Amino acid sequence: MSQTVKLYVMSRTQQCAGRAVWMTAKALNMPLEIVAIDLEKGEQNTPEYKKINPLHTVPTIDDNGFIICESRAIMKYLANKCGDPLYPKDAKKRALVDSRLDFDIGKFWPALKEYAYPQVMHNKPSNPEREKDMKEALDNLELLLSQSKYIAGDQMTIADISIFCNVSFLWMSKYNFANYPKIQAWIDVMKKLPYYKETNQDFNDWIHTKTLIKGQ
Ligand SMILES: N[C@@H](CCC(=O)N[C@@H](CS)C(=O)NCC(=O)O)C(=O)O
Question: What CATH number does the domain located at 5-82 have?
Fold first, then answer.
């Protein structure tokens, strides 16, 4: 008999991309069994977890013995499995989603990681060089959202969910999107998703205890 898909995620606040996978499953009405892996305790490096995912990362899913890691690949798999337009079947629409997800992993996320992580995780001041890269990535995102309501067209896709979870690292007390009206409008739309609160509450409680030293 088929079992519920297991999602291995970081415990505590879901800072990591597990939140994006969780939001995707919610959008698909797919039940998940959430299994918390405590990275601070090194639970990802136990022989048991490495048997599941030799790359020892979260998020990872186990769909009845089919194991896959990397949040964007997981989101594609889940939406594909349900035949859902969150990851469209049409070749051109899908290429657009893939292109935005590549922008996310190749540009937005690296800029965010270098800019925000040292401040959020280690209370270090922002580095002006990294701030420049972050601004450029946000300028790019603003441009994309000037072309359509969502990141890859007029319908929400997994690209919106993935990038939204990254953007959300920036709503710390001193950061605002006043110069980015399209991004702000898109954030407001994403925050109205019926599963937004349940999947983001812990993260929001945590991130609002953080302060970026300097805003945009
Ligand atoms: N690109 C990956 C990132 C996965 C990743 O690096 N996860 C981190 C936590 S945010 C992790 O599991 N680190 C533990 C380790 O590498 O041992 C994704 O989107 O899933």
Answer: 3.40.30.10
Q: How many CA atoms lie within 13 A of 57 on its CB side?
A: 10
pLDDT at residue 215 greater than cutoff 80: no
Mean pLDDT value across residues 179-184: 95
Measured between alpha carbons, how far is 99 from 93 in angstroms, rounded to an integer? 10
Say how far apart CA 94 and CA 100 lie, in whole Å.
10
What residues form DSSP beta bridges with 62? 6, 67
pLDDT given at position 132: 93
Q: Which residue has the tokens 């001193």?
A: 174
Q: How far, in Å, from the CA of 58 to the mean position of ligand 1?
A: 5
**CATH architecture under which domain 91-207 falls:** Up-down Bundle (1.20)
CATH 3.40.30.10 residue spans of the chain: 5-82
pLDDT per residue as tens digits for the range 128-176: 889 999 999 999 999 999 999 999 999 999 999 999 999 999 987 667 7
List all residues whose CB is within 6 A of at least one atom of ligand 1.
10, 16-17, 39, 44, 56-59, 70-71
